[in-house]
User: Which sequence fits this backbone?
């Protein structure tokens, strides 16, 4: 067991090689750079290094909590979770948790193919994706077939935004720190406006994003994309990319320009620029949203749940987690209740901003 800062470069390279051989999409959240970044802001981060003789055969990043309760590294903001193991490695989940002194390990975005932990999943979700592997033109053709009104309306709004503001421009990889601060401000306001917990009010999340914004590695780089009207930013997104995958993370826009749907315009331009960069997949992340339904070409599977070792500490962990999860699931799977809940959150947001 090592802290992320103690992971040697030799071990990190073995991690990258194992991940490349896994056959899973090259999601940057599963790379050592992300775990190292979380380790700098979350002191209870650890990595279990699994060895077969002298050779590294697997890596399991996690965070420790009270009563031996563990959680996925960066849980709450990480959009892809799991262990990185050599194919065919004979290892049981309980054996791994016992070696880590964990009574349980919680996850909320476990990737498909994590055979060690998927049997412990309580729920399965879609993570919508945009496939631009055949180029942006091919993606536009898909949109014309499945969402013709959406594409026509969005591109018309883009032209209108340009006419009324003196022109638009898009920067796929913006390096200006001010643009990142603007995005974080918009996102915080959106969280408050919709009655949700402001993630950026937590310093560790804000600092994690700032650190990843300057991370430049082939398999995990921060990418800030900005849509400008003249010289004014009107929509922005911060995410992580590998050579072939862009994990969409924090999108937001200036509400003053809401009538132009700048967030949708931004996503189309991101898809176009990503395809030009050789990226084949944009992962929009778990969670239902109308804009995701309009943009997506397919979906990956992710899982939520907890892998546990039998015992009193695991029972306490279950009592602290499972009732709330089941209540959320009950509401989420009933559209009428979910609508009531969203309207309540919006009302809370309006009261909060008064």
Assistant:
């Amino acid at each position: 067991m090592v802290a992320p800062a103690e992971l040697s470069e030799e071990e990190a390279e073995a991690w990258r090689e194992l991940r490349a051989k896994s056959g899973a999409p090259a999601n940057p959240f599963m790379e050592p750079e992300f775990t190292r970044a979380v380790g700098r802001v979350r002191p209870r981060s650890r990595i279990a290094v699994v060895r077969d003789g002298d050779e590294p055969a697997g890596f399991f990043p996690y965070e420790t909590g009270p009563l031996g309760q563990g959680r996925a590294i960066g849980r709450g903001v990480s959009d892809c979770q799991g262990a990185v193991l050599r194919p065919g490695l004979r290892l049981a989940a309980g054996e791994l948790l016992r070696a880590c002194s964990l009574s349980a390990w919680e996850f909320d975005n476990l990737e498909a193919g994590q055979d060690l932990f998927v049997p412990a999943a309580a729920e399965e979700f879609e993570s919508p994706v945009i496939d631009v592997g055949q180029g942006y033109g091919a993606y536009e053709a898909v949109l014309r077939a499945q969402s013709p009104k959406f594409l026509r309306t969005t591109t018309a709004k883009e032209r209108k935004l340009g006419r009324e503001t003196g022109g638009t421009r898009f920067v796929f990889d913006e390096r200006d720190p001010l643009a990142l601060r603007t995005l974080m401000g918009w996102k915080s306001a959106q969280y408050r406006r919709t009655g949700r917990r402001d993630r950026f009010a937590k310093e560790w999340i804000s600092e994690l994003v700032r650190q990843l914004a300057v991370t430049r590695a082939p398999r995990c780089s921060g990418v800030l994309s900005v849509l400008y009207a003249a010289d004014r930013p009107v929509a922005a997104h911060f995410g992580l990319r590998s050579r072939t995958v862009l994990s969409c993370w924090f999108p937001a826009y200036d509400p003053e320009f809401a009538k132009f749907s700048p967030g949708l315009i931004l996503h189309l331009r991101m898809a176009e620029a990503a395809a030009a960069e050789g990226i084949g997949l944009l992962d929009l992340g778990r969670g239902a949203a109308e804009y995701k339904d309009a943009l997506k070409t397919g979906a990956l599977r992710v899982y939520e749940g907890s892998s546990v070792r039998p015992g009193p500490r695991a029972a306490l962990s279950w009592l602290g987690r499972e009732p709330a999860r089941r209540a959320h699931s009950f509401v989420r799977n009933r559209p009428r209740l979910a609508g009531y809940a969203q309207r309540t959150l919006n009302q809370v947001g309006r009261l909060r901003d008064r």
User: Anything to note?
Assistant: DSSP finds eleven helices and twelve strands in the chain. The chain has two domains: 4-126+302-352, 128-300.
